[in-house]
UniProtKB/TrEMBL annotation, chains A, B:
Gene Ontology terms: biological process: protein maturation
All residue ranges annotated as the PurM-like C-terminal domain in the record: 184-330
CDD domains referenced in this protein's UniProt entry, alphabetically: HypE (cd02197)
Protein's UniProt name: Hydrogenase expression/formation protein HypE
NCBIfam families, per database record: hypE
Length: 358, 358
């Protein structure tokens, strides 16, 4: 595991304040879709006031609802990844795994998916079929069924081949209460495996770069891994899959939602050599690179070893490690201890370093 | 109420066969999104084999599922209407009403929505905000809450301002079993009000046409109307909202799913004067023009008068009329008795007459 890219600026967390939000941005820019500060502003300033309800304001990866006596998780994502096919997966895989993982991050067992396609006039039916098959196979692998769907077509020049939006529903077991607000000082921060693979896989094909070894996306369903964790301990505070904006965005969201601080140890963050090399070459920080088959868990320190053992016994969590802890200091802020004995702030990204990663 | 456009071909149903499907269409064309034969082929030849499960194959407007002891309806639609704002509504209204109506057509009480936006780089944030507010207001009017969402951004030239995909969940009351397969000879066919308004409203603004009076879309939530019908009788066989492809597409789907025939009386189909004029001018048949706030109900003839009275007592069903009946003859086929004493086949449309109507 390589070290993270060298920090260009070392900041004392005690003297640091969050940058003011970019209010009154009049035009949508690519960064609004990046899962960082701009995305959060759009949600907080446009969508939440427009819809106005407490469930949405909770801002989890999925909503948890009581309906007809059942405790349901409900989530949606649109997938606009480019290219449609990449090492390790395709739009069809992401459209399943992204949504089932959002459900799983509330502790739910994903059950059913909807799939709505927006097709661009002129795309080959064979391409649509290939994506639909990948989606069907990914659903089977994730243990969910695609039960309803829709297709719209837009004129050539108003799409990009295929966009897919999935929504998912699942059941949250009784007693499970997993959400970003529940992070507490003393929690161990566990990452389920090496980070940065999905983002680097997309970059390598999109930019035509060769990093010596082929890097494949980590796209995978995580509900079984979550079930294994919950079988090891009922005391899981937070789960999150660090997709757009990477581990940095997920940890910042958790820190802000819970009013706690997060402290990472740089040397413990699992960055594969190929990811480190690619990031060095491209000037990126692996903490900000998207993952599609990893989760970060906050669990009380006494339960951490059991959780770690349960993860490592599962194929999707074989590389699980404790990367840091939740602290009472610098609430809402994520810092990383560097190999040099310094500390740097890991801020919320403004947008994604590479748009249309998922 | 004006008569329908004069049929150009009179066909004897006894000597008529369904056109062979257009297999091996190699490229997606606009008609694949039109809700007609091309859409059905895409579902039957591409999506259903790829996902392979019985719920999807039932091809209702929504899936009905047992989950955690609850009987859930689950549905999704993408909305790519152009323009974003039109007389009577906007993309935001359609994104709510279209999905809650799909739920309501299984007899469900819609409860919660997800809303996923695909934004085109460069669109004004104020436009997004206007659509989000319309969506929030429409949700409130429909009695549902928007509980989860997503935003993606695509480069300028790969979208059309704003696309929205909503998914919805609702509860199906015990004992309710409403689906296209349940149509039976002897059922009365009831339409809840005048047809063709949504399609003509979109056409008039898109083509810059002036039909003398402004035609406003009928976009509206229909769950309350459905509840009123179900309070009048438990014996409702089929409900359908005739959106893309109009009444013609919905009736053809019902006839095929149930293996029955449908016979309409042209003079009883409620076509507003302005719709008839616009259709005459544009060479369209009102039976094929989209609606967004109407439903068609199949109920046993003995219950029809009660259902009609219940509909007429509700603002959304004030113009309800019986337009025909379900018959044992010409199974899978819809025919209309013309004012001249003749009969013509109302075939499934190939695609929508005007793309991106919803």
């Amino acid at each position: 595991m390589a070290e993270l890219a060298d920090p260009s600026v070392l900041v004392d967390p005690a003297n640091w304040t969050c940058p003011a939000p970019l209010r009154d941005q009049p035009i949508v820019v690519m960064g609004h879709g990046g899962g960082g500060t701009l995305s959060a502003e759009l949600v907080e300033q446009v969508f939440t006031p427009a819809y106005g309800n407490a469930t949405l304001a909770a801002l989890g990866d999925s909503a948890v609802l009581d309906l007809g006596g059942a405790r349901l998780a409900f989530s949606t994502d649109s997938y606009v990844v480019r290219p449609l096919f990449f090492p390790g997966g395709s739009l069809g895989d992401l459209a399943v795994n992204g949504t089932v993982n959002d459900l799983a991050m509330s502790g739910a067992r994903p059950a059913h998916l909807s799939a709505a396609f927006v097709l661009e006039e002129g795309v080959e039916v064979a391409v649509v079929e290939r994506i639909a098959r990948a989606l069907g196979q990914a659903a089977e692998a994730a243990g969910v069924t695609v039960v309803t769907g829709d297709t719209k077509v837009v004129e050539a020049g108003h799409g990009d081949g295929v966009y897919v939006t999935t929504a998912g529903i699942g059941l949250v077991p009784d007693g499970v209460d997993i959400r970003p607000q529940r992070a507490r000082p003393g929690d161990a921060v566990i990452v389920s495996g090496p980070i940065g693979l999905h983002g680097v896989a997309i970059m390598s094909v999109r930019e035509g770069l060769d990093f010596g070894v082929e890097v494949a996306s980590d796209t995978a369903p995580l509900a079984d891994l979550v079930a294994a964790v919950l079988a090891a301990t009922a005391d899981v505070h937070v789960l999150r899959d660090p997709t757009r904006g990477g581990l940095a965005a997920s940890l910042n969201e958790i820190a802000r939602a819970s009013g706690t601080g997060v402290r990472l140890r740089e040397r413990d963050v699992p960055v594969p050599e190929a990811v480190a090399n690619a990031c060095g070459f491209l000037g990126l920080d692996p903490l900000y690179v998207a993952n599609e088959g990893r989760l970060v868990a906050f669990v009380p320190r006494p339960a951490a070893d059991e959780v770690l053992a349960a993860m490592r016994a599962h194929p999707r969590g074989a590389g699980a490690v404790i990367v840091g802890e939740c602290v009472a200091e610098h609430p809402g802020m994520v810092v990383v201890s560097t190999g040099l004995g310094g500390t740097r702030v890991v801020d919320m990204p403004l947008g994604e370093q590479l748009p249309r990663i998922c």
